[in-house]
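Student: Please help interpret what follows.
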Amino acid sequence: MQAIEERGVVRQGEDSLPTREELSERRARYSGLTRPELSVVTAFTKINLSRRLETAALVDDAYLVDRFLKPYFPPSIVKRFSDEVAHHRLRRELVATRLVNELVDVMGSTFIFTMVRDQAAQAQEAIRAWIIAGDIVELHARAENLRTHAYLMTAEAEVGAFLALARATRSACEWTLHHCKAEVPIGEAVGKFLPLFQNLGAEFESMLLSTERDRFERIYRDLRSTVNEEQLAHGLARLAFADHLLNIIGLSLEHDRAIQKSAQAYFGLCEAIDFATLETALSNVSSEDPWERRAARELAEELGGARIKLAEQLFDRVSTEDTIDHLRNARSREFADTTRLIAELKSVPAPSLAALHVVVRSISRLAETA
């Protein structure tokens, strides 16, 4: 709210929004914004982002014509006047408005703000990453599917399903932000990664081991208990591993390895190092302190980077057992220290951020010396 106020879009204290003093008073009672206030914030977020996009080079990408502009018009018009539609005088405004509407409706009002803040990105970069990531994970189709099946769910279950979809898209967006070069056209990036993601997404479950398999099954059970549609719950559970699947695809392309071999090396590590427990503990950090939440996110990124380094160095191992033996024998001290710390961490009901920091740093050292 402060950011859009500073840009002159909204005047706090007016436009039906509470003042800073009112927000501080509510904070003491753990009370947030009302539904009408959230609607106002959503509307002004859309206005702000649309204005910033209308003059941006991003909306000139040819991919956005088919993705956002043509669906605005009746199919008969698009069929008869395809070229004219692509050069419509209001194409920039229409693309920007439709893009922002979809983004904010599914991802929320603060998504781009937090991406810019936490990933040191520009708004255009974050939006571009969202377009690519969203189309890789088929966000639009999945969101429409959720709306179609909303009658099968309670309101709470529907919100939970959309939040699961948004979390998966955010993790994919963060990956895209760092791995899809700015000079690559959006359509080329989507065309490259979408089929790889679809193929791996359909088969990776059989490669999950140990606590990582337990985590997948737990996510599925939780979704299935609220989403009264098995296929829908299964798809969302698979999507919870979107960041891992993209990491594997990146590994495969960078090192010119078969995706299945890359996946086996990546997931096989979980037999030696309990990544799933650590990832769950880091995602559960919900401190009131925003610095602690950011520290948890950065530790999660460090943990993911260490896992990729370990997978890279273990490509040539013929089996999971061979991988574990190599870590245990080649770096016995670091491996023993890591496994001991993880065991200690698992004995604690709610590990502190400091404890998680110690364990993640130990894994990073193991990855650096493996």
Summary: The chain has a mean pLDDT of 89. Residues 132-256 form one domain. The CA atoms of residues 73 and 102 lie 16 Å apart.
